[in-house]
Specification:
The structure is a single chain. The protein is α/β, with parallel strands linked by helices. The protein has 2 domains: 194 residues, Quinone Oxidoreductase, Chain A, domain 1; 132 residues, NAD(P)-binding Rossmann-like Domain (Rossmann fold), CATH 3.40.50. Helix content is 24%, strand content 26%. The strands form 4 sheets. Strands 3, 4, 5, 8, 9, 16 and 17 form a 7-stranded mixed beta sheet that branches. Helix 4 packs across helix 10. The two termini are 20 Å apart. The model has no long low-confidence stretch (mean pLDDT 96).
Length: 356
């Protein structure tokens, strides 16, 4: 077994602290990665604090992982020692159901194995994520990193990037299409960058007028303050697609009326409480749709990484030390980050040897 360390929450109200544990040694189809950087996702906080009421403790979060391959199993063909590699939100699935056969492992009919908070296929054991020194993952769930630089800023692509890329691609964002993005946070800023690179006309909706300049820097063609009724009314019935990234309950009707006939609003934010129920007439009189989207399959995640590398897209980040994670969670709750925290895992390796 591989002795390693990470930062874990021991229960819902405990701060994350140093934690020693073991990883399995690489099997024939496994890749071992020395973790260089790990992004901090709002899902990490939800899980560490058991806000979704499904956390297995101890919990080592982290599913936006970039690192370097340090060992491979005998049957591994796509990676060699020294390669850059990434791991996103999944480390396994049943690999046999209809969804998995279609390359949609995120919709695995028996449930995919999350990079953290398990359960593992077969054993049901808990999985530990990227707030750690090293990780061992089946080759089929490891991604190639082709960005040549700024690797810390690549890490959030493994969740925030694919979470926005997948619906933009699925619902046809591109030239001649008017795409709205609701919210300019970790997900929203990636949606603006990617939709712009796809060639769409991009409109950013925000409650904060002070974000307008930054939104345009990121690629928005226009910024609408969603609390301004006149600004909103000016866009009625004009959008082909709206990607709603806000992870707090809010009025969906204000955005539904902005959709064209047969257009779609896709929800990718995951609030702790339900949104207020929308007015059905805003749907039936224009055959509008509300849809949801969950990350992306492994093949699509690789496609997203390659697309972002080709277009020079990375996340806007603030790098932190591992020991700053609890402070980062509190700042994240206040929206005090532009736009994603990323942990420099070298700072974990420099911590004293004892584990909490």
């Amino acid at each position: 077994m591989i002795q390693t360390r990470g930062y874990a929450a021991q229960h819902a109200t405990a701060p994350l602290a140093l934690f020693g544990f073991v990883r399995r040694p690489p099997g024939p189809r496994d890749v071992q990665i020395d973790i260089l950087y790990c992004g901090v996702c709002h899902s990490d906080l939800h899980t560490a604090r058991n806000e979704w009421h499904n956390t297995l403790y101890p919990s080592v979060p982290g599913h936006e992982i970039v690192g370097r391959v340090i060992a491979t199993g005998d049957e591994v063909t796509r990676f060699k020692v020294g390669d850059l590699a990434g791991v996103g939100c999944m480390v396994d699935s049943c690999r046999h159901c209809g969804a998995c056969r279609e390359g949609l492992e995120q919709y695995c009919e028996t449930g995919f194995t999350g990079t953290y908070n398990g359960p593992e296929q077969g054993s049901g054991a808990n999985t530990y994520g990227g707030y750690s020194e090293t990780i061992v993952v089946r080759e089929d769930f490891v991604l190639r990193i082709s960005h040549a630089e700024n690797l810390a800023a690549v890490a959030p692509l493994l969740c925030a990037g694919i979470t926005t890329y997948s619906p933009l691609r699925h619902w046809g964002a591109g030239p001649g299409r008017k795409v709205g993005v609701v919210g300019l946070g970790g997900l929203g800023h990636m949606a603006v960058k990617i939709a712009h690179a796809m060639g769409a006309q991009v409109v950013l909706f925000t409650t904060s007028p002070g974000k307008a300049e930054d939104a345009r820097r990121l690629g928005a063609d226009e910024v609408v303050v969603s609390r301004d009724a006149d600004q909103m009314a000016a866009h009625a019935g004009s959008f082909d697609l709206i990607l709603n990234t806000v992870a707090a309950p809010h009025d969906l009707d204000a955005f539904l009326v902005l959709l064209k006939r047969d257009a779609t609003m896709v929800l990718v934010g995951a609030p702790g409480e339900p949104h207020p129920s929308p007015d059905v007439f805003n749907l039936i009189f224009r055959r509008r749709r509300i849809a949801g989207s969950l990350i992306g399959g492994i093949a699509e995640t690789q496609e997203m990484l390659d697309f972002c590398a080709a277009h020079g897209i990375v996340s806007d980040i603030e790098t932190i030390a591992m020991s700053q994670i609890n402070e980062a969670y509190e700042r994240m709750l206040k929206g005090d980050v532009k736009y994603r925290f990323v942990i420099d895992m070298a700072t974990l390796k420099q911590e004293p040897a004892q584990a909490a």
